[in-house]
Amino acid sequence: MSFETWFLYISTVLLLMSTPGPSQLLMLSNSINNGFAKSLYTAAGDLTANFFQMVIASIGLVSIISHSQTFFIAVKWAGVGYLAYLGIKLILSKTQIDLNQTQQTRSNSSLYWQGFITSAANPKAVIFFAALFPQFINPQYHLLTQFIVLSLTYLILDALFLCFYGKTSEWISTKLIPSAKNQLNKVSGGFLIAAAVLLGLKDFDAKH
Question: Of the candidates 13, 5, 30, which has an alpha carbon nearest to the alpha carbon of residue 161?
Answer without folding.
Answer: 13
